[in-house]
Structure formats: C-alpha cells, structure tokens
Amino acid sequence: MFGSERVDVKAFDLTKQHPGEPLGERIVVSGRVIDEDGRPIRHTLVELWQCNAAGRYRHRVDLHDAPLDPNFTGCGHTLTDSEGRYRFVTIRPGAYPWKNHHNAWRPAHIHFSVFGPAFATRLVTQMYFPGDALIPFDPIFNCTANEEARKRLISEFDWKTTIPEQALGFQFDLVLAGREATPWESPRQGGK
Questions:
Q1: Of the residues 85, 86, 92, 96, which is catalytic?
Q2: What CATH number does residue 139 fall under?
C-alpha cells in the first residue's frame, strides 16, 4: 500500500473482509493525518465505521428495517504511512432515518477516529459526500457553528484515487488542530 510497510488487507479494505462481495458502490477514501502546520502524523491508527449501502449498521441497537449485508461489517482500520497518508476501500454508505425529529434522515457519512499515544487522546469526526441533498438538514452536521469548518467535513471527489471501472475516489484530510482543523466531536456528542 505505502511502500514496504505491511498492512492487513482485510483491515483497510472493507470489501474483502468476507467471502462474498458487499452490495453497493465501491469507493476509495484516502487522505492525510496532519498537524496544524501541515506536518504528517506518522504511523498513527485511523479507524473507520459506517452503515451499509442500504443505510443499516451491523449493530444490535440499529432497528432500521433496511437489510443487513452478510458481506459487509462496516468497520476497518489502518496505520498512516511516513507521510501521514491513509487509505480505505469500502462502499458508499446509504442514508437512514433516525427518528430525531419528523421525517429525519442522516445523509451518507463515514465515521473516523484518530488515536494518539493513549485511548484518551482519540479524536472522532464524520465525513460527508459532496452534493448530498440531506446535508443542510442534518443536525449533527449543523452542530458545527462555523460554515468554513462545516465545509471541512465534506470530502472532495478525487480522480487521482479513482480506480477505473471499479471505485470512485474521495479525499478527506484529517487536520488535528489549528485554524484549519477538522471539526471533532466532543466526548459527549457521539451518535451514529
């Protein structure tokens, strides 16, 4: 993946974790984990979790009546390389109802966490997709008061990482601090 570094393929490729193929549009999500000065955060753990293409999490509290995909668990992890880069192969998640208010739907999103030297230094955020019509109506997206900061939660389509005839690419950098920091969830915020 990144030079000579060894990575468990099943951990970062969510489409290869089961004997069969998962349903849905294949995507590549990649980016860099950097500090406020643009320096790479090397060899740090990046974790991802998401619902399936039908908008259902493989979790006992998810009671949405959308089907579960037996070939998609919805979670993975990887280590950044020496330049702070990470990469996941997955499927585009679906929108889902969440009963927060009348006719409430969450837009397609992927959860990320970045681990520091201890579990207490874990940062969590969500990545959204460009052009999703549900984004303006999402209370979690709108919890970030600053419009410029909210824009940093939306990934960018990326031709460079698009795999011809297989998967569209999306770029999503994770900036840990500073004026251009990725908005991170407070420890009490949580949610799906």
A1: 96
A2: 2.60.130.10
**Paired sense of beta strands 45-49 and 123-128, if any:** unpaired
In a domain, 113, yes or no: yes
**Is 2 domain-assigned?**
no
pTM of the model: 0.90
Domain annotation covers residue 136: yes
- At residue 143, the 3 state secondary structure works out as coil
Known catalytic membership, residue 96: yes
Taking only the tens place, the pLDDT of each residue in 96-140 is: 998 888 899 999 999 999 997 666 789 999 999 999 999 999 999
Would you call 86 a catalytic residue per the annotation? no
For residues 167 and 165, give the distance between their C-alpha atoms in angstroms, rounded to a whole number.
7
The continuous run of DSSP H or E covering 89 comes out as strand 85-91
Q: How far apart are CA 120 and CA 134, in angstroms?
A: 32
Residue 116 is predicted with a pLDDT of 78
Give the type of residue at 23: L
Structural domain span for residue 90:
9-175
- Extract the tokens encoding 101: 């208010």
- 64 carries an active-site annotation: no
Q: Is residue 190 part of a domain?
A: no
Q: Could you confirm whether 111 is annotated as catalytic?
A: yes
Measured between alpha carbons, how far is 119 from 95 in angstroms, rounded to an integer? 30
